Amino acid sequence: MNDSTTVTGKRFTTQRLALMAMFAAILCVSAYISVPLPFTGYHVTFLNFIITLIALVFPLEQSLLISIVWLLLGAVGVPVFIGGNAGLGYLMGPLGGYTISFILVALLLPLLRGAKYNRIRFTVVSVASVIFVDLFGMVWLMNHMPWKTAWIAGFFSFIILDLVKAVVVAQIVPAFHKIMQNQVQE
User: What is the C-alpha to C-alpha distance for residues 182 and 23, in angstroms, rounded to an integer?
Assistant: First the structure.
């Protein structure tokens, strides 16, 4: 039996499942690592940093599974969304667009990044992903507030810090690959 770090056919190794569970837990905790923004009541969290890291490190099916586990936990009431929120009502509310966009990032980034690490390509897709998240979330906010307010509160408030996080996450991918490979081999 092959106990490698990759998916063997349709099967996941025990070590890979444990690693995926650990990253799902880290994703849940990342909602609590946040900085409240003045005047808006919103938070800049590490959710997009962690979901981008997951999407850049794990294969497509694993990235998607980790994010779906997180989404389902939040949907059934576990407080894992932005600001420790939870529930289906939250997903339909003003910040639900950001949450939904994270699932799309977990799906799209593994397809766009390529199979082999390339610093420039990973940085470009990482930056594109945070721009997508902030735009998607801002458009969703337009259903709950005037477009000008949504643009300022939902895009401009987040984009600078999100771009910094995107560049940083793309640079640390090789270190995470190495750590993960060592963990699975032990």
Answer: 16
Is 166's pLDDT higher than 80?
yes
How far apart CA 84 and CA 28 sit, in angstroms, is 9
Residue 148 CB neighbours (<10 A): 9
Closest CA to 58 of 24, 34, 91, 9: 24
Residue 43 parent element (H or E): strand 43-45
Question: How confident is the model over 68-79, as a mean pLDDT?
Answer: 97
Q: Which residue has the higher pLDDT, 8 or 182?
A: 182
pLDDT at 144: 93
How far apart (Å, rounded) are the C-alpha atoms in residues 110 and 93? 28
DSSP letter at 153 equals: I
What's the rounded Cα separation, in Å, for the pair 53 and 168? 10
Separation of alpha carbons 177 and 166, rounded Å: 17
Residue 155 near residue 98 (C-beta atoms within 8 A): no
In angstroms, how far is the first alpha carbon of the chain from the final one?
16
User: Is 10 in a helix, a strand, or coil?
Assistant: coil
d(C-alpha 163, C-alpha 127), whole Å: 6
Residue 8's pLDDT band, with cuts at 50, 70 and 90, is: very low
